[in-house]
Each structure stands twice: as structure tokens, then as C-alpha cells.
Amino acid sequence: MNLLPWQQKDWDHLLDYIRQHRVPQALLIYGNKGLGKQQLATQFVFSLLCEKPDSDGLYCGQCDRCQLLKAETHPDFIQIKPEESGKNITIGQIRSLITRLTLKPQFDTYRIVTINPADLMNNAASNAFLKCLEEPTERTILVLITDNITRLPATIISRCQKLNVSIPNKETVITWLKQENSNLLSSHLETLFNLTQGSPLQALAYSDTKILTLRNDCFNAWLGLAKQQQHPVVLAENWHKLTDIPLLHWMATWTVDMMKCYYQQSPVRLYNPDLKDQLQWLSQQLELKVLYSFYDLILISQQRYNTQINKQSLFEEILIKWFEANRGKTS
């Protein structure tokens, strides 16, 4: 596994920990989705456990311990993640971890635990995990990874060293996307960069799944709803089935862009520059306080989305509010 082109600065920071023999007992790696935090953490873990890292501190990939790591059978590497997609990390998993940590590491280096996504520990699991942080065991390193640090309890954040993964510049992202997908149009590269807030892996995932076409279809439906050409309940019934796309994020970016259009005659740095004309038009139909209120609802809905809430009802609430906000305003 190689470092991604934009990760050298962050890797140098981690490598300093290793070379100075000051590896933190608890490390929190955080940043936007799609920056390669898992890859960076894996490189860190493998290098710490490798028998003979190279001159750049990267793991060799050939020694017995590297082979165990690749086969996911290294006894001193423990990965904690949700047992099912979309589920939380449970207190049962953390209790099992605590039991394992009472035993000594089998090799003479470190025992490393990764928790990803750390913000999916439920309240009981988070409280139990504090025991690991407050009562560290022999030669054990805890590596937490999250896209959203604000969802972690302050009691956990305060007990970790933190690495905020760098966001690459536009040129780096676009150059890398061209290398990974030579079929991308230049206009799509620009849109993908803005839509994903400069997250290369997320931009690549979007490019490979025709997601831009689907996003445009959803925006046109949303625009049609504003023009009273669609029914919000019917649209919600269709949208709640689209589980693999970030619809709430898209609506949030559309709303933020409308706010920017409201204030600026020629807005810059939009999430959706290719939709500027429609967003500019929409922004002139609504009062600013209505946009802020609608944006608040989307933020609340994002927090509730991964709970047991009925997804169709969630979208109905949003789309009905959007429909009513535009009633009599557009034509």
C-alpha cells in the first residue's frame, strides 16, 4: 500500500512519532470523508508492527509480521468496526476489547487497536471505552478514525493526540483524478472537486458510479418541487429508497449555494457551480430567513439520519417544508 499523493505531510507527522519514540497511547485521526484516513492509519499501524521498515518509515511488506498483517491474522492488531453496515459499535464489542487487552501482546513491539468509524460507538460503548483511555495497558496503542469529530464525546477527544488530515489543493486532486479515470471530462473534474469539498477518494467514487447524472436528476426534481410541479410526499417515497447517495448532503450544498447567491451578484466558490443559474434564480424567490430555517432542518435531519428514524418520514418533512416555502413564490 502506497501513500496517496496528498498524504506526505501527514505521514511525516506520524513518522516523527515513530522516529522520536514518542508514539501516542491514543491517536485520533480525523478529517473530511474521502481523504484516505483509513489508508494513512493502516500505513502507520503496519509500519509500527513491521520488522524492518524502509528508510522512509514505510512497512516492508515482506517480513513475517507484514504477511500476518496482510492476511489479517496478526495477533497484536485488533480492528473494531460496526458488525453490520449502518449499525453502531456496541458496548459488547468494547467489553470484548477490554478483555483482550488484559493479555500481554504476543510480539515484542506494540499491540494496536483501530476503531473506525469511532463516532459510531453508541453512548454505552463510548463510556466503556473511556476505561481503555484512562487505564492504558502494556504497549498498547489506540487509533481512532472519524469523518466527524464533533460526534465524539469531549471526554474521548481530550484524551487523544489529534491529527487533522490535510485537504489537498485543487491541482493535486484534479491531477490525481485524471490519472485514476482518464475518461473524465474537464467540466466533470471541476464539478467533482467542488461537490466533494476537495475529497479525492469521494470524487473518484462519484465519477465511477454515474452519480453526477443521478445528482442532476435529483436537483431537477427538487427544482420541480419548488415550482409546484411535483408532490413532496411522492418525491419523498422515491428518494428514501436511494440509500447509497448523499441526498441530505446535496440538499445542504444547494441551500448553502443559494445563500451565497443571495448575497453575491456573481457568487464564487460554490459547491455546485454547474447549477449556478438555477440556484441564483431560486435564491431570489425566497427570504433569507426561510433559507436559514430550511438549512437548520437539513442539519438536524443529517444528525437523525443514522438513527432508527423512518427515512421516508424524514424526507417528507424536508420536502414538504421546501414545497411550502416556495408556494406562491415561483412559477
Provide a concise account of the structure shown.
By secondary structure, the chain is an alpha/beta fold. It has helices at 8-19, 37-49, 64-70, 91-101, 123-134, 154-157, 170-180, 186-195, 200-208, 211-226, 232-239, 247-263, 276-283, 288-304, 311-325; strands spanning 26-30, 77-80, 111-115, 140-146, 161-164. It folds into two domains: 8-164, P-loop containing nucleotide triphosphate hydrolases (Rossmann fold); 209-325, Zinc Finger, Delta Prime, domain 3 (Up-down Bundle).
3D structure, described in words:
There is one protein chain. The protein has a five-stranded parallel beta sheet with strand order 2-3-4-1-5, sandwiched between helices. The chain has helices at 8-19, 37-49, 64-70, 91-101, 123-134, 154-157, 170-180, 186-195, 200-208, 211-226, 232-239, 247-263, 276-283, 288-304, 311-325; strands at residues 26-30, 77-80, 111-115, 140-146, 161-164. The protein folds into two domains: 8-164, Rossmann fold (3-Layer(aba) Sandwich), CATH 3.40.50.300; 209-325, Up-down Bundle (Zinc Finger, Delta Prime, domain 3). The mean pLDDT is 91. The chain has 331 residues and is of the alpha/beta class.
